[in-house]
Specification:
The complex is a heterodimer of chains A (89) and B (573). With 89 residues, chain A is α+β, with helices and mostly antiparallel strands. Chain A has one domain: Ubiquitin-like (UB roll). Chain A is 18% helix and 19% strand. Chain A has a 5-stranded mixed sheet, with helices on one face. The longest helix of chain A is centred in the middle third of the chain and has 11 residues. The radius of gyration of chain A is 12 Å and the shape is globular. Chain A starts with a strand and ends in a 6-residue tail after the last strand. The longest helix of chain B is centred in the C-terminal third of the chain and has 22 residues. In chain B, helix 1 crosses helix 17. Chain B has 573 residues and is of the alpha+beta class. Chain B has 3 domains: 204 residues, Aldehyde Ferredoxin Oxidoreductase,  A, domain 1; 181 residues, Orthogonal Bundle (Aldehyde Ferredoxin Oxidoreductase Protein, subunit A, domain 2); 141 residues, Aldehyde Ferredoxin Oxidoreductase Protein, subunit A, domain 3 (Orthogonal Bundle), CATH 1.10.599.10. In chain B, the strands form 4 sheets. In chain B, strands 2-1-6-3-4-5 form a 6-stranded mixed sheet. Chain B has a 6-stranded mixed sheet with strand order 8-7-12-9-10-11. In chain B, strands 13-14-15 form a 3-stranded antiparallel sheet. The chains are: A alpha+beta (89), B alpha+beta (573). At the A-B interface, loops of A face helix 7 and helix 10 of B.
Chain lengths: 89, 573
């Protein structure tokens, strides 16, 4: 199963869980699978039109996803990492 | 230890009007920035002194790695007893002076005393030829941009400047210390928090000029190893997500989702104007108006600073940060980033902390003295501060002073310092930082943005972040580079040719915190000061109040056993 790595700012809905194994074949399916286990998560990731929020960056097996991000295929053993940095300035 | 030799410390006595370069103690080789400032203050400053009197110190200390080829490592710590909190304070800033001081081998400037004539102003010139005080009465009450423009004409192009604006000269407790950045040498970087600009002003010191001349970068003991580290670190950073490529203002929409883009004096956690205040609008303006992302110091690979232009394409300010957009923006119900940019420039001109000033204006509005979101009235009031009106002084003295003036009850603060944007109600571990940090409510002391933590995790997560940030702010690295303790100790090892172990770097962070806590204890701060003000404990946002019990908070003072994650935790502030 693919593994979704969740950064600290998004761990409110996941009750602190940092990683989840999910059953999915595409990136969107991974996020939706997390939502099924932890309602409220998807709203952090997708906007009202169902598109990935601008400030959410995804890496698949260490490579940054840049085009058609949600439609990218995933397979067993893949690591889908959500990257988020926070700062005040 | 091998590595750079011949380092000095510059002692400046404003009472006697003397300067003296003395040898930097060898035992302090790995002390820089915040940790060095804390050690000097513990050794030399009476914690019970009047922070605006002659017995307080002003410490200007670059980090251990500043002036070297390490990326984004030129930060400068400004330290002293805070007139805002009554405790120790270190405020950290970018720009060029940190790099320049270390290229000259000056590990710290320690300013003591006070001139007999309180109306007199002085400048401190520092170069390879030495240091001297000069009269600067002609610059009295100049705003920072005009001051630096005038100084540019009087000194070599290689010079950088540290200055206090009119707010510092007026000894307002929200006053900042400005430093100039690398491109246009604008005074746009600020050691903002805790009123250290007032300490500088109280000493009659209007500016410090640092001219490195032709001095080169500091040479490490292990040149090959250090060079390899620099290249590897830079390559890895540039191959990574570069989350700050559009500045901290890009954090706005996420913070809004996490209920920490606070609105109307923190009575709500989200702003209806989030789209207008999103940093993306600033980036979009670049194409039409000019402006761009840039680096505030030489050798920076983060480039998080947005240079903001006005509608006519003229420079207005830099950098317009998330904290400023929150406190001067949404927290005052201001609807436009352009109005916030105007106020950011005004604060930089006056030498005021945008967090403290925004929080004060929100208290003023909440007290019914000004309409919410009235940016015109806000700018007018800010513009009057250096004319000395009673209200202007209160705003310049911060939120607690403004609450006293208006008799208003809702003043969110810790140890007298306003709460930054990141709110301690949804982010309780950050709240533990605000309670226990020697700095008062300061997100740069230990920011933990994780709403999913269990209560039993709050103290460790806060302690971990406070240690990592204390070491980062001592190293000269910028927190936005997000170095870990392992990163920093590896750079130290190559710089000085002796391995710095995990235990030693952990010790260094803990010792820094202990020096600062000890200063505060001797200053008279007690466990009763380790709390947040009532609005944060009683008024919820998104159904949450700050409810971490005092007996849990005080566990911070027990050093918890290091776990592996301590050494790979990234600095964050």
């Amino acid at each position: 199963m693919p593994r979704v790595v969740i950064p600290p700012p998004y761990r409110g809905p996941t009750d602190g869980a940092a990683e989840l194994e999910v059953e999915a074949t595409k990136v969107r399916g991974c996020l939706e699978a997390v939502e099924r286990k932890h309602p409220g998560f998807l709203a952090l990731m997708l906007d009202d039109d169902g598109q990935l929020r601008r400030f959410a960056t995804l890496f698949l097996n260490g490579d940054k996803l840049t085009k058609d991000v949600l439609a990218q295929p995933v397979t067993a053993g893949d690591s889908l990492e959500i990257i988020s940095s926070v700062a005040g300035g | 230890m091998p590595g750079p030799t011949g380092d000095k410390m510059l002692r400046v006595d404003m009472t006697k009007q003397t300067t003296e370069l003395v040898d930097f103690p060898a035992a302090w080789t790995l002390l820089g920035g915040r940790a060095l400032s804390a050690r000097i203050l513990c050794d030399e400053c009476d914690p019970t002194c009047d922070p605006l009197g002659p017995d307080n110190l002003l410490v200007l200390a670059p980090g251990v790695l500043s002036g070297s080829a390490a990326p984004t490592s030129g930060r400068l710590s400004v330290g002293g007893k805070s007139p805002l909190t009554g405790g120790i304070k270190e405020a950290n800033t970018g720009g060029q002076p940190g790099q320049h001081l270390m290229k000259l081998g000056i590990r710290a400037i320690v300013v003591t005393g006070q001139p007999a004539d309180k109306e007199a102003r002085f400048g401190l010139e520092v170069s390879a030829d030495g240091a001297r005080l000069i009269k600067a009465d002609a610059h009295k009450m100049k705003r920072n941009y005009q001051l630096c423009l005038d100084l540019h004409g009087a000194y070599p192009k290689t010079a950088s400047f540290i200055s206090c604006g009119p707010a510092g000269e007026m000894r307002l407790t929200g006053a900042s210390v400005a430093t100039t950045d690398q491109d246009n040498r604008y005074p746009a970087r600020h050691a903002a928090r805790g009123g250290l600009g007032a300490v500088m002003g109280s000493k009659g010191l209007k500016f410090v000029m640092v001219d490195p001349g032709r001095a080169g970068v500091r040479q490490p003991a292990d040149r090959a190893g250090f060079g390899k580290l620099c290249k590897g670190y830079t390559k890895d950073y540039q191959a990574g997500p570069q989350m700050f490529q559009f500045g901290t203002s890009a954090v706005v929409p996420m913070a809004n989702q996490l209920n920490t883009f606070v609105y109307k004096n923190r009575v709500e956690g989200q702003s209806p104007d989030v789209q207008n205040l999103d940093g993306a609008r600033i980036v979009e303006s670049f194409e039409e108006r000019g402006g761009a992302m840039h680096n505030c110091m030489t050798g920076c690979i983060v480039k998080c600073s947005n240079v903001v232009h006005d509608a006519q394409g003229e420079y207005k300010t830099s950098a317009l940060e998330f904290e400023t957009l929150t406190l001067l923006g949404s927290n005052c119900a201001v609807q436009s980033w352009e109005d916030v940019a105007d106020m950011d420039r005004l604060c930089d001109e006056l030498g005021l902390d945008t967090i403290e000033t925004g929080a004060a204006l929100a208290v003023y509005m909440d007290a019914g003295k000004m309409d919410w979101g009235d940016a015109f009235a806000m700018k007018k009031l800010l513009g009057e501060i250096d004319r000395g009106s009673e209200v202007g002084r209160a705003i310049g003295n911060g939120a607690v002073a403004t609450g006293k003036l208006t008799g208003h009850h809702r003043v969110p603060h810790a140890k007298g310092q306003s709460i930054p944007a990141w709110d301690p109600r949804p982010l309780k571990a950050t709240g533990v930082t605000y309670c226990t940090s020697p700095m008062g409510a300061d997100h740069t002391a230990g920011l933990v943005v994780n709403p999913g933590l269990k209560p039993e995790q709050y103290v460790w997560e806060s302690q971990k972040s406070q240690i990592v940030n204390a070491v980062c702010d001592s190293s000269g690295f910028c927190q936005f580079l997000q170095p870990t303790l392992d990163d920093i100790r590896n750079f130290y090892s190559a710089m000085y040719g002796e391995e710095v172990t995990r235990e030693e770097i952990h010790d260094q962070g803990w010792a820094c915190l202990n020096d600062e806590w000890e200063f505060n204890r001797r200053a008279g701060l007690t466990a009763a000061d380790d709390s947040l003000s009532e609005p944060l404990r009683k008024d919820p946002i998104a159904g949450q109040v700050f409810d971490v019990p005092a007996d849990v908070v005080k566990q911070m003072y027990t050093r918890l056993p290091a776990q592996d994650d301590l050494f790979v935790t990234k600095a964050s502030g």
